[in-house]
Amino acid sequence: MADQEEVFEKIREVLEDALGVDEDEVTPEATLIGDLGAESIDFLDIVFRLEKAFDIKIPRGELFPENLASADSGFVVDGKVTETGIAEMREKMPHADIDSFAKDPAVTNVQNLFTVDMICKFVGSKLDG
C-alpha cells in the first residue's frame, strides 16, 4: 500500500515545480485552479510530471476528465450538472469529492473538484492498483 505522506510530499513537489507555487500553498484542500492558479495547459504538464515522479501511466482524461460539464455534453441544464452528469462524474472520477459538488452542482463549481487531495487519492489508487 502506498504511503500517503510520501505520496503527498511527491505531489507537493510536482505541483510546486509545475505551477511555481510555494510549498505552504500546496495543502490537501487547495484547489488547482482557484488556489494554485493552474490553467488548462498546466494539467497536461502535471500529468506528465506525475507519470515521471511515480513511474505510472495516466491515460488522457483519466485524472482530469474532459467535457463532463461542457454545455454540449448533455449533462448540463441551466448552468447546473444534471443527476445523470453527476452519476457520470462519480464513475469517471471516483477519486474526487463528488458528494460535496452535488450539493451545488453549478458548472462553475466543477473546478473545485480538482484538489491536491483528489490527486493524492488518484495516485494512491494507481500505486495500489
UniProtKB/TrEMBL annotation:
GO terms for cellular component: cytosol; membrane. GO terms for biological process: lipid A biosynthetic process. The keyword Membrane does not apply. 4'-phosphopantetheine is transferred from CoA to a specific serine of apo-ACP by AcpS. This modification is essential for activity because fatty acids are bound in thioester linkage to the sulfhydryl of the prosthetic group. Pathway: Lipid metabolism; fatty acid biosynthesis. Residues 5-80 form the Carrier domain. The keyword Kinase does not apply. Keywords: Cytoplasm, Fatty acid biosynthesis, Fatty acid metabolism, Lipid biosynthesis, Lipid metabolism, Phosphopantetheine, Phosphoprotein. GO terms for molecular function: acyl binding; acyl carrier activity. Belongs to the acyl carrier protein (ACP) family. HAMAP family: Acyl_carrier (MF_01217). Carrier of the growing fatty acid chain in fatty acid biosynthesis. This is Acyl carrier protein.
